[in-house]
Amino acid sequence: MNGRTERLDLYSPPGTDARRDLVLHHPDSALTASAGIRITVTLAAHALVLGTLLLLTGLWLTGRPPPPLKPLPRRWVGLLMAIPTVVVAGIWLMAVYPGMLSPDSTSQWRDALSGHMDDAHPLFHTASIRFIQKLWASPAAVALAQIAGLGVLVGWGCAALARAGVSRGIIALTAMVFALAPVNGTMAVTLWKDVPFSLCILALCIWVFRSATDNTMRWDVPFWVSMVVLGALAMLFRHNGLPAVVGTFLALGLLRRERYKAVALALVATFVVASGTRWVLSQTYTIKPFAKGMTLVGFLGAHVAAGTPMEPGERALLEELHPLDDKWNYRCFSNVFTIWDGRFDMDALTRHNKALLPLLVRLTQRDAAPVLSHVLCSSSVLWKLSQGSDHLNGPPIWRGPGEELGTIEPGARHLRSDSLLPVLREPLLRWTVRTLQPDLAWLLWRPALPLYLLLLACAVACIRHRTWRLAAVALPVVLHTAALAALIPSPDVRYQYPVFLVALMFVPAWLAGMRLNTAPSAEAPRRAPSVSQDASTLRSAG
Asked: pTM for this structure?
């Protein structure tokens, strides 16, 4: 620290003053103007190299014809392709039985057991856990439900790819990638609301894919019911589910503009079902209200740390939320350090929640730089490939004093890990911890790579098939990412799990090529442009 080494006892006896305030000075070289230039040049070079590689790859792929079609029997493709994912996820569950639980997981598990719920976790997800507890009071029951859901969607998605003319080799590759991706193995056995939410988004995107590639698919009653139910579930499982749901129905409206009234009506029905379900649950269970304004804490902390000029009343309000002497313990990448450092007053946040947004607007009008810097830093996990000194919150794995690895929050009562495959537990966990290191995390865990690959593959497929329709498949996750970039509270991989799932499902098929359904639509008018016209143009050009 500041050029010297010092030993600090972090385990002081109770009753002693265990707090130390330290000021760490940046090296002089970091404060020079040349340092900013070097950082700017580095980021520019990073973007230039990445863009060039993606451009060359895209040009090469768009010039390749689709591979010869070797269709799989549709009756069996769904079942066969789901098996690897279910088997690998099942091995994960047995190895870390009864599952992986973070502090959020254990808190929500206790809420479900007691029936006294905190709206910080979506009420519907907690109620779903409570229902599963009636069948089997173990987190493993939730994990089994998630594994089953993931397996069903992998099988259904692969069947949709087969229907769109994707070769059997690419479909088998898609199934294996789903099974071997560490993000799927760990997320499937973790009790997080992000898992069922992401499964709903994947299901919606598969429906959009089918609508974009199969003109013979009818939008009948079962289709609309599934869209409304899936959309409502996505909004119920996460508070920020709205952008992805709106993106889904917007995509459907663009694909079949003549059905815009039906799409709008289905979207309204989705809102009604979600709102009605929330109301029924709120009348059934005791709910602790969620403290509003928490999403603004990071932005306000940026102004506090930057020393933005404040009036006495504004300073007093922020002091009431959290003492200003340590600049709110602000960290640009996460609001956890401010809210959970033991000095933040949640009751004050509730009292002043209506005044926070106007206060943020006034401070930003005086100086917008802190807010822009905060957004650039907090959202870096979404768009920046390399990790460097960035933080990345992956699956819940703890390292104990004896270097042993745990998968349940330390100190959690009535929950303990009892592996059914102890011979695999340590190797799996240690390999997972190894992949979270910066040299591998960019490839397996950082959400930027699947997002970039999804956009690249989508562009390649649209150019190759001479149609924009496939771009509609990516619209839900693009809107989800855009909304998340503005308000992401911490660099958690789980927030972008929908992008991982959608990318794993469609990137291999889009890059390798497929042969779209050329049958005319039974619903679309003759004058409407169709995928069959685009496909015939491609054949004549070939």
From this structure: 0.85
